[in-house]
Design brief:
This protein is α+β, with helices and mostly antiparallel strands. It has helices spanning 2-8, 45-52, 99-110, 134-146, 156-159, 177-180, 192-200, 264-277, 281-295, 299-306, 343-348, 372-380, and strands at 38-42, 72-76, 84-91, 114-122, 125-131, 168-173, 205-210, 218-223, 241-242, 253-260, 310-316, 319-325, 333-337, 359-363, 366-370, 393-394, 396-399, 403-407, 412-416. It is 26% helix and 26% strand.
């Protein structure tokens, strides 16, 4: 699961404004238990497993014979160990008469895998189920017999409308973020608590669509039932803003989180509505009031005055700064004390919190906030190459050593390193 978890929770990901496209319904979903937290449907087992599982997985050591080209679903159970269940389309094969099925069953036994063969209970299909867990196989069999499956999970059927990958799609249950997110994921940039809380609130389901058997160019969509409590609602109807940060981000950057705003005031309004629905608005306003008292200005007033078109958090060579591109070009200035420390994370959340934003400087129309050392390093750093391939318009982006995700005008694209 480690590899696919990295693909998945890349999501820093606020939301795509992707329209719903009806996907073809696979009968294999009927074999997936309803409490599964990740469901991966692909049209070729042989091609899909290498991008989903690392080379040590027992599923990659089996000889599937003619079933290697079979349609498959790989799912993970809601358990501490993230137990996998592989479901293969066996066509009209019989467990008793098909030599290939019998051979695969023998291999499964040798590799301490448990099996269940469903001959006629799935619509127009027979299926072979494999798992290292006897209990999970028994549960899956009971689900098939009773007619209960992942199709009965809240929001899953609706999320199928977003599954339009020509090779396959992955469905992730955001409410199970604590189970899905790897322990070490992005640990240098965020606490695990922050990641779980954030990703768990992005949407109800996240769908990754694969147009090829590659970990690049993965299309990301979000299933949120029209509720402002999900962070994906922030970008649902928002226009992409100009993306000019290539000129400001140091060439040696290792982590970049950017927000591009076509209408900064409208964004803040929707963000506050989201906080209100999530019962977090009072705490938010309390932070703003505290900063107004200490700095002499309300952060929301500062936001209106600056009308920031881009906000970027960047880490390079052991340094970290926040970059702000105001609507009115910032006048060049040297290192000075930041009169409004803490304003950006108070307004936008902990994703944009850095350890020290006490100093500031401006160059090239951008303001840089950080420690004296970091801001000085930014002023001297070569810039212009790291984000040279970015689109002209975007909503947000996250680039780090594990993956990159960019939400453009029409879709959100994920690339996994």
């Amino acid at each position: 699961m480690r590899r696919i978890s990295g693909i998945v929770w890349v999501l820093f990901l606020l939301a795509s404004c992707k329209s719903e496209v009806a996907g073809e319904l696979s009968a294999l979903y009927s074999a997936v238990p309803s409490r599964s937290i990740a469901v991966m449907h692909f049209d070729s087992c042989e091609d899909a497993l290498p991008i989903l599982l690392d080379s040590t997985s027992v599923f990659r050591s089996l000889d599937y014979g003619r079933l290697s080209r079979a349609e498959m679903v790989l799912s993970y159970d809601y358990s501490a160990g993230l137990i996998p269940l592989l479901v293969l389309d066996a066509g009209r094969a019989s467990a008793d008469t098909s030599a290939m099925v019998r051979k695969l069953l023998d291999q499964a036994a040798e590799n301490k895998l448990f099996c269940f063969y469903s001959g006629e209970r799935l619509p127009k299909r027979s299926a072979l189920l494999l798992s290292p867990s006897k209990a999970l196989i028994a549960e899956a069999g009971e689900h098939i017999i009773s007619g209960v499956s992942i199709m009965d999970a809240e929001g899953f059927r609706e999320s199928l409308a977003l599954a339009d990958g020509s090779k396959g799609s992955i469905f992730l249950r955001n409410g199970s973020a604590a189970r899905l997110i790897p322990r070490n994921m992005l640990k240098s940039y965020f606490t695990r608590k922050e990641l779980v809380r954030f990703f768990g609130g992005v949407s109800e389901w996240t769908v990754l669509n694969f147009g090829s058997y590659s970990r690049e160019g993965i299309d990301v969509a979000f299933r949120e039932p029209g509720s402002a409590r999900y962070l994906s609602s922030l970008f649902a109807g928002m226009e992409a803003g100009d993306c000019n940060s290539a000129s400001a981000v140091p060439d040696s950057a290792e982590f970049v989180l950017g927000l591009c705003l076509d209408d900064p005031r409208a964004y803040l309004h929707v963000w506050e509505e989201c906080l209100d629905v999530r019962a977090e608005l009072s705490r938010y306003k309390g932070r703003l009031a505290s900063l107004r008292k200490s700095a002499g200005k309300n952060p929301s007033v500062w936001w209106t005055e600056k009308s920031p078109k881009e906000i970027v958090r960047v880490i390079w060579d052991g340094q970290e700064v926040l970059l702000v591109r105001p609507a009115k070009k910032a006048r060049a200035s040297g290192l000075a004390e930041n009169p409004y420390p803490g304003f950006i994370p108070a307004l936008l959340g902990d994703a944009f919190r850095i350890s020290d934003d006490s100093m500031c400087a401006s160059a090239g129309g951008w303001m840089a906030l950080g420690s004296a050392e970091a801001v000085s390093a930014w002023l001297e750093a070569p810039r212009g190459a790291f984000l040279s391939g970015m689109p002209r318009k975007a909503k947000y982006y996250l680039i780090n050593p594990e993956f990159s995700i960019v939400a453009g005008s029409k879709n959100t694209v994920l690339n996994v390193n």
